[in-house]
C-alpha cells in the first residue's frame, strides 16, 4: 500500500489520484452504498460524459457476480463517509487479490476503506445540515464537489474540447448549442447564387428558386462580394428601376458571413444582433454554403 497523506497534503494526494486515473488503460469503476452510492452514480455519469470511461458498481450486486465487470486494466474509486460499510468488503478483497488499484474518499482516515486504499482522499470534518446532524447532506455535497473537481481536472488533462463534448451529447439542448454551422447549412446547388453581372430579374428568379430570402453575389473566382435580399428587392421595385439593371447596383456590399466550423449558436446570435435571417458561409472568402434562421430554430439552437 502506498503512503497516506494528511489533509494538509490534499492537493498532492488529489493530483496523484488524477494521475492514476489518467494512466489507467481500462475504466474507472465507481462504487458506494446508500447516499454515497447515489453520488457515485452521478460521478460516473459526469466522468463518462467528459471523456473518462466509467461504470457504476453496486456493492450489493458485487458479491453476486458483478465483480466480473472489474478487470486488471481498471481502477476502483470507492466512496464511503464512514469507511466501514460492510457491503464494500467483497470489492476491497477483490481489489487486493487481483492487484487492482483502489482509490477512496472517506471522512475516517483510520477506517477499513481508508487503510485498504492505495490512495485515499480524506473528507473534511463537516456537520450535517439536518437538525439531528445525521442525515447525509453536507457530506454528500462535499462528495459531489470532489467528483466534479475530479471530472474537470481530467477534462483539462485530456484537453477535452467542446467538439468532444458534442460527440457525447448529440441530443437535447446541450447538443443543439454545440452544433457547427456546417452541420445545418445548405450547400452546392441549394445555395442561391448569381454572378456579379447578373440582372435584377436573374437575382429575383434565383431567390424564388432557393426560398431562403436572398441570394449571394459572387465574382468569377466564387468569392462572396455581395448579397441581395427580399428587403433589397422590395426597396428596388418601389422605384422605377428596370429588371434588366445589374444587381450589383442594389446589392449589399461586403455582406455578413460566417465560417463553417463556427457554432450554429454564434450564427443565430449574429442574426439577432443584425436583424437578418440569412447568413452566407465562406471558407477563405469562397462561398460554400448558406444558413437560414429557420433551420437554426428547427434544430433547437437558442
UniProtKB/TrEMBL annotation:
SMART domains: CBS (SM00116). Keywords: CBS domain, Metal-binding, Repeat, Zinc. Residues 185-244, 251-302 form the CBS domain. GO terms for molecular function: arabinose-5-phosphate isomerase activity; carbohydrate derivative binding; metal ion binding. Residues 17-160 form the SIS domain. One of its GO terms (biological process) is carbohydrate metabolic process. Zn(2+) binds at residue 58. SUPFAM superfamilies: SIS domain. The record marks 35, 87, 128, 169 as: Catalytically relevant. The keyword Cytoplasm does not apply. Pfam families: CBS, SIS. Belongs to the SIS family. GutQ/KpsF subfamily. This is KpsF/GutQ. The lineage of its organism: Bacteria, Pseudomonadati, Pseudomonadota, Alphaproteobacteria, Sphingomonadales.
